[in-house]
Amino acid sequence: MSEAAETSVITFLSDYGLADEFVGVCHAVIAAICPRVRVIDLTHGIPRQDVRAGALILAGSLRYLPVGVHLAVVDPGVGAERRAVALAAADGRLFVGPDNGLMWPAAQAAGGIVRAVEISRSRWRLEPVSATFHGRDLFAPVAARLACGAPLAEAGEPLEPGELVSLELPSARIDDGRLLAEVLYTDRFGNLQLAASGEHAERLGLRPGAGLELQKESGEIAPARFVRTFAEAQGDELIVYEDAVRRLAVAVNRGSAAARLNIGAGARLVLAPRT
Amino acid sequence: MSEAAETSVITFLSDYGLADEFVGVCHAVIAAICPRVRVIDLTHGIPRQDVRAGALILAGSLRYLPVGVHLAVVDPGVGAERRAVALAAADGRLFVGPDNGLMWPAAQAAGGIVRAVEISRSRWRLEPVSATFHGRDLFAPVAARLACGAPLAEAGEPLEPGELVSLELPSARIDDGRLLAEVLYTDRFGNLQLAASGEHAERLGLRPGAGLELQKESGEIAPARFVRTFAEAQGDELIVYEDAVRRLAVAVNRGSAAARLNIGAGARLVLAPRT
Amino acid sequence: MSEAAETSVITFLSDYGLADEFVGVCHAVIAAICPRVRVIDLTHGIPRQDVRAGALILAGSLRYLPVGVHLAVVDPGVGAERRAVALAAADGRLFVGPDNGLMWPAAQAAGGIVRAVEISRSRWRLEPVSATFHGRDLFAPVAARLACGAPLAEAGEPLEPGELVSLELPSARIDDGRLLAEVLYTDRFGNLQLAASGEHAERLGLRPGAGLELQKESGEIAPARFVRTFAEAQGDELIVYEDAVRRLAVAVNRGSAAARLNIGAGARLVLAPRT
Question: Which of A20, A24, A136 sits opposite B188 (nearest CB)?
Answer without folding.
Answer: A20
